[in-house]
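In response to reviewer comment 3 from the previous cycle, which asked for concrete evidence that the modeling workflow produces usable outputs, we include below a single protein chain processed end to end. The sequence was submitted unchanged, and the resulting structure tokens are shown without manual editing.
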Amino acid sequence: MSASKEGPNPLRPYYIPPSVGASAGTPSKSQPPPNLGSKYGYSQSASSQNFGSSARNILADMDYSDYLSDTSPSSTATIKSLAEQALWKYTSVFLAQPFDVAKTVLQVRLPGSGPPPRFRKFKAIQVAPENEIKRVGHRYSSASSENESPPPTYYTRPAPPPPTGLTPPRRPRPRRRPDSPDLDLSSDEDIPPRNTPKPSPHILDIKSESSLTAVLSTLWQKEGAWGIFKGTNSTYVHSILLSTITSFARSFLAAIFAVPDPSLSFQINPPAGSVGGLDILSSPTPMASLAIAVSAAGIAGILLAPLDIARTKLILTPSTHPPRSVISTLKTLSSWTLPWSIAPVTFLHSTLSTFMSASLPLFLRSKLSVDPVVTPTMYDLATFIGQGLELGAKLPIETVLRRGQMHIAQTGLQAGPQNKELQTVVTIGPYKGLIGTMRSIIYEEGERTVKAAPVRNAAAGRTTSLARDPERRKGQGLEGLWRGWRVGMWGLLGVWGAATLGSVGSKGGEF
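The workflow returned the following structure tokens.
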């Protein structure tokens, strides 16, 4: 019950209504009469009244506009913000997709494979018989005896004429070899070698084993613009679902185990090294927060494994080969769950990046005393080096994972009712598990040129080194495990360069 203008409520004699909204010059009319306060033993001093009014004035003068918005965002503004974020994300995926396609092709390609070699088509030259050549040569060599009549054939019997209606049998014409001098080598026509299967028209003829530009140019010539942007929609959907499921699983596990969410930063200015929005430096239990972040990333990777397989299949199949949609490609898989053959590689690939990026700040502060607040420059440099090491550790596992995913896609298609063979743009390398595939890439697939060690010659009392021709060894070597590392390094340099320029521009107003 509110107080009236005539006086206080008799049922609430000690209640003083607040004077919020009243002007400073308007006196307060809601003061209890002196006899009512003295009746119940209550006495109000002027100092207490002045303190209450001053406290209310202080709270009224505080401005919260920098911390809290006066009005909540409307539904139109919310939809507009979500649309802008989705457009920005799709644009970034669209621009990076050609390099991702080229890197995936180099990772799964079997070295030395491609279209079979083609030979020159030869044309036979009509050559006169040997007896005709001898007869013509004898005629020109004995020109002086042209007028002489041939000697009479006294001891030969003329051959009987052939019967009427019959033709003499023809002698089989001997076959001529391609290396015979009677063949014309000036023809430009090509023919495939004999006893070889017909090559697939979709196989790319890649000149270099490690050049991304060679792959992109070959795809552009073979399939056009659609060839270098294959799998853009599936990559976009996979990135959105991966971030959403990872955030949900991380928050859920943090709530279950009563651990602060690693995605919530408790610092005023989070360091640039907190990749992926993770900040475990300010957590009271950093090891528990790290375990939750890694577990959430592993759960998201396992749940989205079928979508990742469909994305890899869309990239490595021809753009003219149906199906090309995400849902239709998922239906061609034998199962929508993670196969056990690639489960360890998938979990390791999903958690390695999160583990290294989240544990690096903790290692720098606890072991090297490098803090983002005390030593920001050293911290940024160490974080950049750590991300380079993360890229180097992730690429070999990603190479094995892509081959395993294509092995699953080929197995599921061949096990179908029609028993079709999966058409790919390159010949897929074998998958033999994590360690077996790495060993096969280094020592068994393709050939590499190795610089031979020089031979030392101690003749004439001096030691000299004699250069030797390079040797050819089997296998791709360690370079085969890091196909596409240049793309990752250029992307890392671009992100850090943009972050550095942004930080410099933001600090320009202080001076």
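The two ends are 58 Å apart (CA to CA). We consider this sufficient to address the reviewer's concern, and the full set will be provided in the supplementary archive.
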